[in-house]
Amino acid sequence: MLRQLKAIKAWGQQAPQDLTRLHMPVLIANGDNDIMVPTALSHDMARRIPNTQFVIYQDAGHGGIFQYHTDFVIKALEFLAQ
Q1: For residue range 5-35, what is the model confidence (pLDDT) as tens digits?
Q2: CATH for 28
Q3: I need a surface site. Which of 15, 20, 22, 40 has the fewest CB within 10 A?
Q4: Number of helices (H), then strands (E), in the chain
Q5: Domain range spanning residue 70?
Q6: Does residue 69 or residue 11 have the better pLDDT?
Q7: DSSP state of 63
Q8: What's the pLDDT at 80?
Q9: How many C-beta atoms surround the C-beta of residue 11 within 10 A?
Q10: How many structural domains comprise the chain?
């Protein structure tokens, strides 16, 4: 576990990757209070990837897609149908 935390910390200190090269459609979904994958990072990723659909679930954490599963399934199926 300590090695994994060390690797995560080192990875997090790298310069941001150039995400503008991604041209496929991307669906990003997160809760507005995610402490495992901070919501601010999801906003940043959505801003940096072209052709992104971005969904933030209110009053949700890391399990936002499970807390709002009915809405998420609809959005995911619509996204995959494109």
Answers
A1: 888 888 878 888 899 999 999 999 999 999 9
A2: 3.40.50.1820
A3: 15
A4: 4, 2
A5: 2-81
A6: 69
A7: T
A8: 97
A9: 8
A10: 1
